[in-house]
Each structure stands twice: as structure tokens, then as C-alpha cells.
User: Which sequence fits this backbone?
């Protein structure tokens, strides 16, 4: 399981603390590097997440593992009156707050430093919850998903965008080569943290995807669980809801 993969193999810190440290370190390069690594296709995936959420006409949206706030900012195109971006990396949030301020969205988006596995919200708080490329960084996946279910309103929507592994030839072989060789190399060129993009590659390769993640979501208690593979299966969008 992904919980065994950590950014710094010689560190005595837990995964959660290591992930926070890693994202603090790479925060300055993160946005630009993401565009390079995904060839910009991640923007198209995020717009699909936006459509799923927008169709539900939410008033409150929580974006978990919000990073520098790209998806939270995109959620201002929904009917939401309040959007909260949550992350454990102070460095990423600082950049996100600057982006939000520059776009004059500070009255609509609040960025908070908090742990996604122990969130400071009441039960049944949010109409929609999103996570883009963040669930594989949870220290305890099931605990994090259980916490998300707790703060999601009944009939609310939960949408995950996460990396996955293509099943078909030749995409599977191409993805494996790219993730093991090209991605860490690009990361080293752009980032002062040599371990970071090696970790992101390794964690993606072992994270449950497709029906495996669907089954975990159902086990937690989510309903209407769907997986929608994107771009030959290199990423997947998941949607789920909550019973009354």
C-alpha cells in the first residue's frame, strides 16, 4: 500500500510530516513543474472535476490537499458562496494565498493549514469536496476517506482526481518508462529536492486505482461510486456521494 512509500527513506518522521516537509520544499516550483510533467493535460482534467461539482450547484466547497489553490480557484466558477482550501503544507498555502489575493478572491476562498485526516469541521458541513492528486499522500487512506465522508453533507458530491496506471499496451509500458525515468529526471532539473518527484512517481505506482479504489470508497460508506479513466488511464476521476 501507498502508506509504505515515503518521500525521505532515511527520515524518522512519519509520512504526514515528510509529505508536509516535501511540499514546503518544492512549493516554489510546483505549479510550473506540474504543467511540464503532465504536458498541461491536468488543466483539462480539473475542468472535468469542475463540471461534476458545478452540476450539483453547491453552496459550500472543500478542496483537500489544495496545494497552491488551483482547484479551489477553479471552484469559483461554480455556484459556491464559500470555498475552503485545506493543506498540511504552509509553503504551498502561502503561494496559494498570494494567487488568490492577486485574483481578488480572498472574500470567497479561505486557505487553512490543517490535517485532512483530522479536520476542524462539524459533521455534514460541505455540499462538495474535491481532492486533486492528494489522496495518495494520506498517511492512512481509510481514515482520511472516513473523515471526508463525515464532513460531506448527505447527497453531497465527493470528487477525486488522482494518477492511475494504464492497463492497455502500449500505454502501460510507456507510462512505466515515463514515471520511472523521465518524471524523476525532470523533477531533479527543476527542484532542489531530489527525493520529491521520485516519491511522487513511486507513490503513484502502488496506489490503488479504478475498481480497487472504488471498493475502498464503498467500504468506507460512500454510495454512487464511479471511476472515469482519463487520457489512456494515466489519471482517473472518481465521484461518490453520501446517504441521507
Assistant:
Amino acid at each position: 500500500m501507498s502508506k509504505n512509500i515515503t518521500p525521505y527513506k532515511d527520515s524518522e518522521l512519519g509520512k504526514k510530516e515528510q509529505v508536509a516537509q516535501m511540499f514546503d520544499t518544492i512549493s516554489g516550483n510546483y505549479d510550473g513543474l506540474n504543467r511540464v510533467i503532465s504536458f498541461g493535460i491536468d488543466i483539462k482534467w480539473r475542468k472535468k472535476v469542475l463540471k461534476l461539482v458545478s452540476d450539483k450547484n453547491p453552496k459550500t466547497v472543500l478542496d483537500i490537499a489544495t496545494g497552491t489553490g488551483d482547484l479551489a480557484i477553479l471552484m469559483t466558477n461554480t455556484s459556491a458562496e464559500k470555498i475552503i482550501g485545506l493543506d498540511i503544507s504552509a509553503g504551498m498555502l502561502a503561494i496559494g494565498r498570494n494567487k488568490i489575493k492577486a485574483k481578488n478572491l480572498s472574500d470567497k476562498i479561505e486557505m487553512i493549514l490543517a490535517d485532512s485526516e483530522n479536520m476542524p469541521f462539524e459533521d455534514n458541513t460541505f455540499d462538495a469536496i474535491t481532492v486533486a492528486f492528494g489522496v495518495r499522500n494520506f498517511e492512512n487512506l481509510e481514515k482520511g476517506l472516513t473523515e471526508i465522508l463525515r464532513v460531506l453533507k448527505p447527497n453531497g458530491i465527493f470528487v477525486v482526481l488522482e494518477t492511475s496506471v494504464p492497463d492497455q499496451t502500449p500505454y502501460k509500458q510507456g507510462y512505466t518508462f515515463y514515471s520511472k525515468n523521465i518524471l524523476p529526471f525532470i523533477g531533479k532539473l527543476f527542484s532542489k529536492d531530489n527525493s520529491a518527484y521520485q516519491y511522487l512517481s513511486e507513490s503513484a505506482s502502488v496506489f490503488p486505482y479504478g475498481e480497487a479504489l472504488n471498493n475502498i470508497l464503498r467500504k468506507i460508506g460512500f454510495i454512487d461510486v464511479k471511476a472515469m479513466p482519463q487520457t489512456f488511464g494515466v489519471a482517473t476521476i472518481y465521484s461518490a456521494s453520501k446517504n441521507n
About this structure: The chain has a mean pLDDT of 91. The radius of gyration is 17 Å. The beta strands are 60-64, 82-87, 109-113, 126-132, 152-163, 223-230, 235-241.
